[in-house]
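Example 3.2
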Amino acid sequence: MNSLYDAVTRVKSIEYVMALAFIAGFLILNELLKPKPFGTLVSLVREEATIGFATAINTIKKIAIAPFIGLAYVVALPFALAYAIGTALARPLAPAFSFGWRPVEAYLTGRKTKKGRRS
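Structure, written as tokens:
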């Protein structure tokens, strides 16, 4: 070790490895102390093995269509960029095209004029 930084890095790495080892050890010991150790894992593996051919076909379909989904994403990117740029450029012009409708303000009994009368 050449510096304090090297020493701290080494100690921290050892701490992380020990923490992960203790967590893994706890999980394994906890599973071994159950009446049926690793029962859930065994049932999940059996269920996965019995699903079989249909799942394999669905997985192959998803893998086959993945490049086309990626291509659609790449084709859509320029349009999304153009929309973002257009929105950013049009934002300063928005007040000029606003019609003054504010859905938050509800004058259900009519709006009062400056003279105090209702319009």
